[in-house]
Batch of 2 targets.
Target 1
Amino acid sequence: MEANELPNIAELNKEYFNNTSSTYDANPTNVLYAKKCAEAILREVKDLKGYEVMDFACGTGLISQDLFAHVKSILGVDSSQNMVNEYNKKVSQQGIDKEVMQAICLELKESDGDQLNGRKFDLIVCASAFHHIDDIDSTTRMLVSYLKQGGELVVLDLKKHPEVLHKLHEENKDHIIAHRGGFFPEELEKAFLTTGMLENVSSKIAFSLPKQIEKDEEHIFEWFLVKGKKI
Ligand SMILES: C[S@@+](CC[C@H](N)C(=O)[O-])C[C@H]1O[C@@H](n2cnc3c(N)ncnc32)[C@H](O)[C@@H]1O
């Protein structure tokens, strides 16, 4: 790599999550964050009955599994083939029809236009993944392009606390994080608003959890949710 060349975040993420897919669900923190995110989505978006949902950056399907009983169908999309395999393994073990829930390995990019043959969704969710993605504005516009008119986009991520930034992820140094420490909620609200295609944009704290960041130091981590409705 040339000195001035940026690492390809998307490729590095793919490699990282391909290598960690088989142990992802064994980490109680991953399961807990996903459970809290799914609960927040269900609190925020009432009556999902009949909804066709996209779970973007779906991972092993922890969010999809919790939303499944409330919706018509869920399509998981992730750039890591091994995460997608874990997702689909669970679906097939449960005997669920692929038409109702399945994941596909796809790198959705704004520059590639429609990659889903005209398929549109009532709700698109993305939990704990935006901080892995470098171009948030483009990703948000791309996701909105897959919403039906009146459909909702809901993104959940870690709220940035500058005072602990330097202490974060010490235990996971190999994580590929484009936005270290998450975001200020206003940053994602701005990305939503500048699409020009979302209204009723708002954010709120979804949940908070204490986490030890150093031997004798605990910090309260806050996850926030930002949502908007397609005009
Ligand atoms: C921390 S995991 C969260 C998984 C899931 N949303 C959950 O809450 O359990 C982040 C996920 O983002 C995916 N990811 C990272 N960059 C991506 C991209 N550009 N497009 C699609 N998925 C991506 C990774 O493969 C991984 O599955």
Target 2
Amino acid sequence: MNVQVPNLDSPRDFQGNPVTPGLPIAMLAEVTHRCPLSCPYCSNPLELVRGQAELSAAEWADVFRQAAALGVLQVHVSGGEPASRRDLTQIVAAARDAGLYVNLITSGLGLTLARLRELDEAGVDHVQLSLQGVGRDMADRIGGLSGSWDRKMQVARWVGEIGFPLTLNAVVHLQNMESLPEMIDLALDMGARRIEVATVQFHGWADLNRRALMPTREQAVFARKVVNEARERLRGRMVIDYVPADHHAQFPKACMGGWGSTGLNVTPDGTVLPCHAAQTIPQLQFDNVRDRALGDIWTNGTAFNAFRGTAWMPEPCASCDRKTVDFGGCRCQAMAIAGDPAVTDPVCSLSPLNADLHAQLDADAAAAAPDDLTYRRMGKQS
Ligand code: SF4
Ligand code: SF4
């Protein structure tokens, strides 16, 4: 298939006016791809960056300074598992020195009470703890590591002891959707201020596990109901963020709030992406902070400009009122489903590919294979 991306020198809107990029608010800093867990829903790419290629703490410090100068206010320090970096404290301190609000996204594995205290001292403002499931059996099975649940629960107690503001981050899918009410209760018990419930997104390793993880239509309806009831019940006590299963929705999500509009992602080796899955689009070329200034990449990088504005949009998006609401959906999802990143996201009910997608979903549901999991690992899949 010969698929082109718009590749505009400068992005334009429908009237042909140039679009000036806004300022990024948040940066995802994937400081390593190493991780003791091997979740089959991991959105890290199939080709993981090896430890030797990772940016050093000094290089990260420079990236954080450039990001702050560009307008970034908060950095999400993530991975992989960021605690796999022995110099994590140094990295966090550099982010704080640059004036950024520091959110640490972790599975908890590799953190001790002493390390958490150091990270507190260094400037972590907020902790986001991932949840692979509720209870030993599900959490250890999905995380692919025996004992991970017990260690995570211990880390959660330490996080509370130190007093970090906590968000619990749960990825929900075919195999754990029924325990969503227990996940919400667990977040409350941990004293979390927020729980982020995200339906699995089929990027990276997750895409290898569609048949094992794709939630059913009934589960999507169930999750929506649970979230709405819990929001009502817990108003003022805990915030519930919810990323629904857009495969079963009428319209797609507004991915990244619009391509290249509010956030950017720096991978462990310094590659700068408009979203964490953008490398699944083979037609795009990405710049690296080792070769080019972050601000220049943000403003002029061809990958960032490829889907800015609205002029690139095909029909039915081109004549749709929602084009400035959902921006035509997710480019990586269009690539994954249609093999073309420049078409309307096929999960949209207005997409000409939507009927085929639903036929495929039905076929996948009939052939669901919960035990057929491809776990994420450093070496390429076998
Ligand atoms: S999703 Fe799982 S395997 Fe992937 S980085 Fe997070 S904890 Fe590690
Ligand atoms: S046609 Fe395009 S703009 Fe309209 S709802 Fe669907 S994805 Fe969004």
